[in-house]
Write the C-alpha cells for this entry.
Amino acid sequence: MPNPKGHEDSIKNSRFKAAWQSGPTRTIRVPITLADSTLDYARQLDRGTEPRDTSNNVSSEVEVKTGKCPDTSGSIDEENILNDEVESLRQELETLRAENRRWEKAFKGFEEEKYELEWEVGVVRSLLGSATCSPTPPVAEFKLLEPPEVLNLLKGKRKKTKADLRDIEVVWQILEELTPDKGN
C-alpha cells in the first residue's frame, strides 16, 4: 500500500545524516595496530584540518602489542624503577627456569629407575614362573600293596584280564627293586 505522506519533501528532514562530510563511505581492511591512527587521520582530512602526526598513536599501539612500553614520563627515576622491576622479573624467570630444569632431570632419573625396576620385576617373575612350573613334586609315602590285593584291584578294573597271582608277584618284586631303600 502506498504511503500517502511519502513525498520527498516530507522525508528530507528525517533522513540519516552521515558522519563524514566528504561523501559516501566504504569498508576497508587495515591491520588492527594501525586502525585507530588511520581513522584519526581520515577524520582530520574529512574536517579539512591540517593532519597532525599520528605516528605516536601507532608506535604506542605497536609497543603495547609487542610488550615494549614507551617512556611517557620522561623521568629518570621512574625509568630506573621500571628497569629494576624488569631486571628482578628476569632474575625470577631465570630462577624458575633453573628449577624447572632440575625437576626435569629428577623426573628423568625416576623414569630410568622405574624402567630398571620393571625389568628386574620381569626377571624375578620369569624365574619364579620357571621355578613353580618345573620342580618335581614331593614324593609321598608310597606303600606297596600285597600281590593278592593288587590282583583283586586289577580284576575289579578289567574283568577279562589274563594276569594271575604269579604275574602280580613278579611285578611286585620289580617295584621293590626300583623303590629306593628308606632305611628299612
Remarks:
- The mean pLDDT is 75.
- The radius of gyration is 52 Å.
- Residues 76-133 form the longest helix (58 residues).
